[in-house]
């Protein structure tokens, strides 16, 4: 509802709002109380929209349209909104006559002017006669009225022309309003695309930094307004949605202020609008550790899987029931401190924290907070390392640990060494083939409602780029996955989620999450793990028959993969071999991966096979229990 | 999983299946056990699919493709599948050379023939060189091999050409396979359209009866196979999905057998395939009654709303705690027999049964059962009317009562008259302006997963047609609504559902359902109801200001609507006036509607206003409680 939206928008730090007609019509608040609430919240009402199907109509209809406009001007006076958006017409009664359009818009601007209102004319990408920004600009110039100007909407411009030029030459005094929206490139009806699939800046495929730079180079000094119609955002809580919106806007402003643009006359290349500039992202050196919560039921499953994978229990936290498990560069922290208890007899285990190594943890945290991340209360005990941490929108805690040349407290010092012979061996032994190295990636489940927002969070806060994108028909519905990572490839975070399914992605397997460990020899790793008692997730024979048909691998290699339940993928850069454990507790599993050559993905093509296998294992609880 | 799908398909009455590669690859069942299970279930495996990117490639690749095909033939032998689908190529290595395509397909057919396998070649609508059925047919003829024929898929044909001709002239011996799918008309990339938006026959916009009639006129005698890729169906339980599929196929066969088609040579106009023919639908005369379950908390809310609307409590069921309320032609049955209890202090009330008047209730029930409706156990007490009933997919009970000239027990006889003075007046008094007449429509909430299936059920079982369709941005997300009705307009059932939202359509208002009563004078009806103490759902002032701007109604009419909280819509045929009660119990409300002229909709344009108003009332429980 409107009041909730206004409060959310103000809380996220916006200075003003557009009031959308539908929101007001269904609201029980009077325009006067909306105005008063906005004033209380420190929000200006920058635009009332939309006003449709006005220009280039026969005289009788023009008179009726002016009456309609006067009613909306009445409303705008009550709201205290100074600018109205007029979209280019779709009316079946309109005619293709720029002169008439300009004349009638001029008449409208005259009426508006008398009320102290400005009219911003916008070309809809599907406008009947006017559907390009250049055309709307011609008509505005032709009408030549001080109260008539242009509204530019990045969607309407970029959906028709991904690389527009000349926007920087528009007279700034005539640029009344700027609406920003991103969108994925979709080959579909542009109206449907606009009304259902818009995204916040950075979430789609449009070059918004370039577009915004042109508008600012023109001298535009008005608001940067987000106008995003999206089926998913529409139904989400306005609080988090407003934060996502502001975060994406800050990231966009940073992108514009970082790049050099050649637009505008020499003296106007620097925008007059002050752009947000969060502290630059320090380099990240990889995953420091991943923390899982475990309970009494899941802990033995997880520790025996870690042991079998060659991990050693090397440390015990000095003040909390927390264990450190290590191998190569991989650190896994198991936390029994939560109140989680399994409800289905499998126990609960979840990824609760990602820790990344930063060249400047303090600046990483300052950047995160400038990008609206929620700082987490420090949880330092006496003599423990002071780790800066923020909360991701999905609830995951994100820690910044000193790495490389950065100085700072070592989080490992919070753990007392576990004596050899106690529990498991503290010394995992010398490096050998098949030993696991660093964490390759962490995969987090995301509810569909949160997917785009989480992407924006991790990408902007950690300065990551998209590394992989897949959408596939999994055994129980459509699943989307995206991987973001840093340029060096040392840090990868994969996100996946069911697009439509209520609840988890499969009956009895809700939203699995996993940690993938890198190895240089997946076959040795699998054999060693088997020897130590790991149950590798069984993969169907049909999968290997299909691999044979598709890729015709060396028969011996195929039989080795089949025997060890190793999955396979390739792309134009290289190959990928991987195997998984079964589910440990309700939703966590481990994966071991080997990248050969420059393979860029995460084996998403095999996800349906893995999902079906996990489901198969869960579906037969007798077998799982007796195994 | 594959096994669940096979069992569901067999249970729904199908004779055979296509095995889709992805289902088999992720299955832990060997091909031999799939074959054995199908045999046990009485299913033939009619097609293995798909085999891709085969034809018109350089020699080296052709050899590799033949090897790949042999591996799939191995698999098909194990499955006992006699026909393989080969889609027209998308390979970047392929060349535009029909001769080469035919030659290589001929080589493939030779290999297949040696195994007793047939190759069905299909033009994908987005095939690189071959994307029309005519082109695939040319290539099949050119290859001229007895083991090579055509697969026709209605999606690939009708997505490119909504009214194809000449299909009836194809040599029946070369028609190896027929795949049927419907789809909504969407202006989008055809591959995405095909992979995500296919529907069962009758659920979309394709003229499938015409297409199937052509194929049958050609002399096709093979299976009618449904190949439907749909994001929603993909994630639903295969049991109900298979029933929806079979129901839509039966309805399609009925449509084909009912129509006269001019296709084919004179002697071939009658298809050789035996088509399903459920008993024809008897005429329906309107809603007999609607039954609500109520509990102790909701019952007083509902009875006082009915009283205020002018209904009288006229009957008490002879054996059950069930009340009959009547006015004009509207009958509402309140059932306290359930175990429902409110969980949020508002009480529970739900629509549990729709009863329709049929000119032949027995035949209506036989038709429903022929269309796979689940018969409900009779719940007749001694001397009570024997009503035939079936369950709709949404759980609603559907009763068939004798109407018009039909003879049969009168359901009203199960109710003992309520003496005047006891409870409320048994005699609602003489007709007067504003008195409510028949039930105009009943609106049922549908989960998104079930929407298409429910449409097919009500449309096919009751022989209804689509009357209205709307999709709108409601205050808490996108909502879709569809109304189906009979030709005379006496029976209307509206369905609506949130497209994405988890849970109800709005926080604290889960999936409302309502009964709309018709009146000839909505103003008198509203005044009378107010006088009797009804709280009409308050509509915002902003709504009336917007009505004024949009339609410039007579000021007195506008103020009357505003004063009485009457909503308004118009279309090219007439006008619509309506008002609603607040929510009675958790999710039910009543509506009073007046149609002026030939207005065809249900006021869907006002649904967001109404939803926001219901939410507003629920959101302030203090006010609701004290009111």
Q: In short, what is this structure?
A:
The structure is a homodimer of 627-residue chains. Chain A is of the alpha/beta class and 627 residues long.
Q: How many structurally independent domains of chain A?
A: 2
Strand order of the largest sheet of chain A: 13-14-15-12-8-11-10-9-16
Please report the total strand number of chain A as a whole number: 24
Give the full name of the CATH homologous superfamily of the largest domain in chain A.
2,3-Dihydroxybiphenyl 1,2-Dioxygenase, domain 1
Give helix % range of chain A. Answer: 25-40%
Query: Biggest interface, and residues per chain?
Result: A-B, 59 and 59 residues
The largest β sheet of chain A comes out as:
9 strands, mixed
Structural class of chain A: alpha/beta
CATH architecture of the largest domain in chain A: Roll
Termini separation of chain A (Å)?
53 Å
CATH topology (level 3) name of the largest domain in chain A:
2,3-Dihydroxybiphenyl 1,2-Dioxygenase, domain 1
- Report the mean per-residue pLDDT of chain A as an integer: 91
Radius of gyration from the alpha-carbon trace of chain A, in angstroms:
29 Å
Mind telling me the CATH class of the largest domain in chain A? Alpha Beta
Low-confidence stretches of chain A: 265-269, 621-627
Which descriptor suits the 3D outline of chain A? elongated
- Give the percentage of residues in beta strands of chain A: 15-25%
């Amino acid at each position: 509802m409107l009041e909730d939206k206004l409060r959310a928008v103000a809380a996220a730090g916006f200075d003003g709002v557009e009031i959308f007609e539908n929101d007001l019509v269904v609201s029980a608040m009077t325009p006067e109380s909306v105005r008063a609430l906005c004033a209380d919240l420190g929000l200006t009402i920058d635009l009332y929209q939309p006003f449709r199907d006005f220009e280039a109509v026969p005289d009788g209809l023009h008179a009726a349209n002016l009456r309609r406009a006067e009613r909306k001007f009445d409303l705008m006076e009550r709201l205290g909104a100074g600018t109205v958006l007029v979209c280019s017409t779709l009316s079946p009664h309109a005619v293709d006559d720029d002169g008439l359009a300009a004349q009638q818009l001029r008449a409208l601007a005259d009426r508006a002017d008398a009320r102290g209102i400005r009219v911003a004319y916008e070309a809809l990408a599907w406008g009947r006669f006017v559907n390009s920004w250049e055309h709307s600009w011609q008509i505005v110039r032709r009408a030549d009225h001080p109260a008539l100007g242009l509204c530019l909407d990045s969607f309407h411009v970029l959906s028709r022309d991904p690389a527009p030029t000349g926007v920087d030459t528009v007279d700034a005094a005539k640029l009344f309003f700027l609406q920003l929206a991103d969108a994925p490139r979709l080959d579909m009806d542009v109206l449907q695309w606009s009304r259902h699939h818009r995204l916040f800046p950075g979430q789609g495929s449009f070059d918004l930094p370039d577009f915004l730079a042109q508008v600012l180079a023109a001298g535009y000094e008005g608001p940067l307004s987000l106008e995003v119609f999206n089926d998913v955002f529409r139904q989400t809580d306005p609080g988090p949605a407003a934060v996502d919106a502001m975060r994406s806007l800050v990231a966009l402003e940073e992108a514009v202020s970082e790049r050099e643009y050649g637009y505008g006359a020499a003296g106007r290349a620097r925008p007059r609008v002050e752009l947000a500039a969060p502290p630059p992202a320090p380099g990240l050196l990889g995953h420091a550790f991943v923390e899982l919560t475990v309970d009494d039921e899941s802990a033995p499953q997880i520790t025996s899987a870690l042991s079998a994978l060659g991990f050693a229990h090397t440390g015990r936290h000095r003040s909390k029931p927390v264990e450190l498990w290590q191998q190569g560069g991989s650190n896994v922290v198991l936390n029994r401190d939560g109140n989680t208890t399994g409800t289905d007899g499998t126990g609960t285990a979840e990824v609760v924290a990602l820790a990344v190594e930063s060249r400047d943890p303090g600046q990483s945290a300052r950047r995160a907070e400038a990008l609206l991340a929620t700082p987490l209360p420090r949880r330092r005990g006496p003599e423990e390392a002071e780790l800066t941490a923020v909360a991701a929108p999905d609830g995951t805690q994100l820690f910044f640990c000193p790495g490389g040349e950065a100085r700072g407290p070592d989080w490992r010092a919070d753990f007392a060494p576990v004596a050899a012979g106690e529990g498991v061996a503290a010394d995992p032994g010398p490096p050998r083939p098949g030993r696991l190295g660093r964490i390759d990636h962490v995969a987090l489940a995301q509810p569909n409602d949160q997917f785009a927002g989480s992407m924006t969070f991790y990408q902007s806060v950690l300065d990551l780029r998209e590394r992989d994108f897949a959408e596939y028909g999994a055994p129980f519905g459509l699943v989307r996955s995206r991987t973001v990572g840093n340029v060096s490839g040392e840090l990868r975070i994969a996100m996946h989620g069911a697009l439509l399914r209520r609840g988890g992605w499969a009956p009895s397997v809700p939203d699995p999450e996993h940690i993938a460990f890198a190895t240089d020899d997946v076959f040795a790793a699998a054999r060693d793990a088997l020897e130590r008692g790991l149950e590798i997730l069984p993969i169907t024979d049909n999968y290997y028959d299909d691999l044979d048909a598709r890729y015709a691998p060396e028969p011996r290699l195929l039989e080795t993969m089949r025997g060890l339940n190793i999955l396979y993928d390739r792309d134009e850069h290289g190959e990928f071999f991987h195997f998984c454990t079964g589910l440990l507790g309700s939703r966590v599993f481990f994966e071991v991966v080997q990248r050969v050559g420059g393979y860029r993905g995460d084996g998403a093509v095999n996800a349906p096979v893995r999902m079906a296998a996990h489901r198969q294992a869960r579906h037969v609880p007798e077998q799982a229990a007796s195994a």
